[in-house]
Amino acid sequence: MSLKSLIVLCGGLFAVSAPIWAHHSFAAEFDRDKPLLLTGTVTKVEWSNPHIWFYMDVKDEQGKNTNWGFSGAPPGMLTRRGVTKDSLKIGDVIKVEGFRAKDGSNNGSGGKVTFGDGRQVFTASQEDVTPELKK
Question: Which of 63, 41, 45 is nearest to 54 (CA)?
């Protein structure tokens, strides 16, 4: 095999495997021992593979807004569940039950989302769970 053929083969293998490297398991990114229950206003929705992300402003006790990002399932999986890119709208007030990112950032795994009208959807991937929250 020529050097040129080897380079083309390696480049092709890298291109095919790159999306796999970009996808991380729940356990690699989120901490099951740090459940979240946050209420806030949706500020942004990114509806793309490999996972959707949605963001919301959450007010603390002093009234300061902190923007949180939540990773969800792939768009195709959510669509099959009846959750579309129009389900989460900018300005919606939602409650999110999920798990905090292991790195301590203001990111989490978006699990159960409850809308103001009481409707609920599960936005996480199949391997994710909704946390058992202390009431």
Answer: 45
